[in-house]
From TrEMBL:
<dbReference type="InterPro" id="IPR009006">
    <property type="entry name" value="Ala_racemase/Decarboxylase_C"/>
</dbReference>
<keyword id="KW-0457">Lysine biosynthesis</keyword>
<feature type="binding site">
    <location>
        <position position="218"/>
    </location>
    <ligand>
        <name>pyridoxal 5'-phosphate</name>
    </ligand>
</feature>
<dbReference type="InterPro" id="IPR022653">
    <property type="entry name" value="De-COase2_pyr-phos_BS"/>
</dbReference>
<keyword id="KW-0456">Lyase</keyword>
<dbReference type="GO" id="GO:0009089">
    <property type="term" value="P:lysine biosynthetic process via diaminopimelate"/>
</dbReference>
<protein>
    <recommendedName>
        <fullName>Diaminopimelate decarboxylase</fullName>
        <ecNumber>4.1.1.20</ecNumber>
    </recommendedName>
</protein>
<dbReference type="GO" id="GO:0030170">
    <property type="term" value="F:pyridoxal phosphate binding"/>
</dbReference>
<feature type="active site" description="Proton donor">
    <location>
        <position position="328"/>
    </location>
</feature>
<comment type="pathway">
    <text>Amino-acid biosynthesis; L-lysine biosynthesis via DAP pathway; L-lysine from DL-2,6-diaminopimelate: step 1/1.</text>
</comment>
<dbReference type="InterPro" id="IPR022644">
    <property type="entry name" value="De-COase2_N"/>
</dbReference>
<feature type="domain" description="Orn/DAP/Arg decarboxylase 2 N-terminal">
    <location>
        <begin position="23"/>
        <end position="266"/>
    </location>
</feature>
<feature type="binding site">
    <location>
        <position position="302"/>
    </location>
    <ligand>
        <name>substrate</name>
    </ligand>
</feature>
<dbReference type="Pfam" id="PF00278">
    <property type="entry name" value="Orn_DAP_Arg_deC"/>
</dbReference>
<dbReference type="Pfam" id="PF02784">
    <property type="entry name" value="Orn_Arg_deC_N"/>
</dbReference>
<dbReference type="InterPro" id="IPR029066">
    <property type="entry name" value="PLP-binding_barrel"/>
</dbReference>
<feature type="binding site">
    <location>
        <position position="356"/>
    </location>
    <ligand>
        <name>pyridoxal 5'-phosphate</name>
    </ligand>
</feature>
Amino acid sequence: MKNSDLLKITEDYSSPIYVYDSAKIVSQYKRLTSAFKQVKNLRINYAVKALSNINILKLLHNCGSGLDTVSIQEIKLGLAAGVPAKEIIYTPNGVSMIEIEEAVKLGVQINIDNLSILEKFGTLHPTIPACIRINPHVMAGGNTNISVGHIDSKFGISIHQMPHLLRIVENTNMNVNGIHMHTGSDILDIEVFLYASQILFDAAKNFNALEFIDFGSGFKVAYHENDIETNIEELGKKLSKKFNDFCKDYGRELTLVFEPGKFLVSESGYFLVKVNSVKQTTSTVFAHVDSGFNHFIRPMFYNSTHEIINISHPKKHKRFYSVVGYICETDTFGSNKRISEITEGDILAFKNAGAYCYSMASNYNSRFRPAEILWHNNQAHLIRERETMDDILKNQVQVSLS
């Protein structure tokens, strides 16, 4: 997108505001499918938690994507977007059997990552296909909050518990049609991923009626110029060969499944904010903007780095700024960022704002969540209205305290 497009959106819809470029989402989807073109049966299930606006789900479904969901609400969003239940996988963590039973009734693919739940499910529903989530104990991810394959992770059934797992499957005679893993996000070394995949292939040999093997995702995208990203083309070449060889040994063609979220939508997103004031202290120049970690929590939560550009004056002399929000506690988007000279009223754009940004926004400090725009076919489409005071008060129940 051009700076002029983004500036026009802030003029028309005000700030703060999220903007997503549909063309980038589509191109990332095509890049991933192209990398694995040597696989006969490939399935992409978009991770809804990354960005759950129903229009994004529709866009990706039009590309051919299914959905990876982690809650009953995400399932219902997917169904509302027109995605068939058979194209939705449900991978909960620590939920009750009540929610799982509701998902069963909706007809989606169930993915289980707990031995206790596995035994209950197998006993109650021995004929309903179930996938099993394995923890290979292989660490990936740039931050402990998004590295989920380690020994102390709450996710998945430990590979070391395979004998117990197999006893449950045998005793309940349950229908296992898939096996799954997820090592974490921001994969830097594809050899680590390939090592984990071999563990999953070895585990898959224990099941004779598999339809698919799900390798999760966690592919890293570039957050700034010359940043390291997952070499998806090299991974496609190497993993495709391993997968095809496994299918040959297994005796039939299985489906290779991925569940990308960030990879598909992160780079499509821009978060636009207006500079309220520029404050010089004895050691720092602060650019105060009209938002906070209530809207964009990743820098505070994950210590993530997002490129920030002054789209109002991109060619001015660059100076160092700490860009901060209006929340009444430490609320820093970036420290000592080299940005084109900032004046009050300028519009700043945070890049890579498509994944885990709006979906993690809140009403902290009773602030309104921002609007969302989809830039599609060179036009801005409002896909979520900015909240109002009515939204803040909607579910509050006032009682008489006299």
